[in-house]
Amino acid sequence: MLGCTFTFESALLDNNIEVRHITENKYVNM
Question: Which Pfam family, just one, is annotated for this protein (predicted)?
């Protein structure tokens, strides 16, 4: 289970899946 979006985003990036708001150096409100 993932408890943080940063953990989830890291997993995506580790698998070469683009996360657009990171690519564009932006933050997403939650």
Answer: D-Glu_cyclase
Residue type, 27: Y
**Per-residue tokens: 24:** 């564009």
How would DSSP label each residue in 1-30?
----HHHHHHHHHHTT---HHHHTT-----
Domain boundaries in the chain?
Answer: 1-30
Q: What is the pLDDT of residue 7?
A: 80
pLDDT tens for residues 1-30?
A: 456 777 888 889 999 999 888 888 887 766
